[in-house]
Amino acid sequence: MIENQKVVTLTYELYVAGEDGGEELFEQATVERPLTYCQGEGMMLPAFEAQMAGKEQGDQIDFTIPKEEAYGEYDERGLKTLPKKLFFDGDGEFDAERVFPGNVIPMNTTDGMIVKAMVLEVGDKDVTIDLNHPLAGEDLHFVGKILEVRDVTEGELQAIRNPHRCGKCKGKCDDCESGCGSCEK
C-alpha cells in the first residue's frame, strides 16, 4: 500500500484543457519509461501524493488536481522583459545558443535561488521571459496504472534527501563547505 517512504512506480497520461474545449495529452510516462518517486519526500505535488495514498500495486488511477492545488493560476506578473546584456556568455557575447524563443533557461533570483524561465521573445535590446510554470492555470487530469510499490532503501532515501551527494549541505549550497563539486554557489 502507498504510504510515506514507499517507492512508487507508475505509468500515466497527463491531460490538460485543449483549445477545442476537450482534453489534450500534455505528457506521459510509459511502461518503458515510467515515473518513479518516493511518497512523502516532496518529490511530487502534495495533492498528487494525497490522491496516491492508500492505493496498491496494480491499481488504476484516474483523478484530477485542480489548478489551485497544482501550479496555481497563470500570473501575468511572471512575464518579464529584461535587458539583453543579462544573457551574455563569459565572452561578453549574447548567448544565442541557449537564449531563443521556446527554450527554457535557468535564471537566478535576487535571493540566489535558481528558477526556470521560458524565453518568449528576443529583441534587439531586450529578452522577454515567462517565469510561470508551464502548467500554471491548468487542471491536471492523470490516468494510469501503479506498476510497483516497495520500501525505500536507506541509500535511496539519502540520495533523495541529499541530492548533492555530499550529505553536508542538505540542498542549501550557500552553506556547503564540503567541496563535493555538485553544489552551485
- Spell out the helices and strands N to C: EEEHEEEEEEH
How many runs of DSSP E, i.e. beta strands? 9
CATH architecture of the largest domain: Roll
Shape: globular
Parts with pLDDT < 50 across at least 5 consecutive residues? none
**Strand percentage, roughly?**
35-45%
Helix content: under 10%
Structure, described:
The chain is built from two helices and nine strands. With 185 residues, it is mainly beta. The protein has two domains: 6-71 and 135-152, Chitinase A, domain 3, CATH 3.10.50; 76-130, Thrombin, subunit H (Beta Barrel). The strands form two sheets. Strands 1, 2, 3, 4 and 9 form a five-stranded antiparallel β-sheet that branches. The chain has a four-stranded antiparallel β-sheet with strand order 5-8-7-6, with no helix packed on it. A hairpin with a 3-residue loop joins strand 7 (114-122) and strand 8. The radius of gyration is 20 Å and the shape is globular.
How is the secondary structure organized here?
Layout: E1 6-17, E2 23-29, E3 35-38, H1 46-52, E4 60-65, E5 79-83, E6 104-108, E7 114-122, E8 126-130, E9 140-151, H2 154-161
Antiparallel strand pairs: 1-2, 1-3, 1-9, 4-9, 5-8, 6-7, 7-8
Give a summary of the structure in a few sentences:
The protein has two domains: 6-71 and 135-152, Chitinase A, domain 3; 76-130, Beta Barrel (Thrombin, subunit H), CATH 2.40.10.330.
Structure keywords:
185 residues, mainly beta, Chitinase A, domain 3, Thrombin, subunit H, five-stranded antiparallel beta sheet, four-stranded antiparallel beta sheet, globular
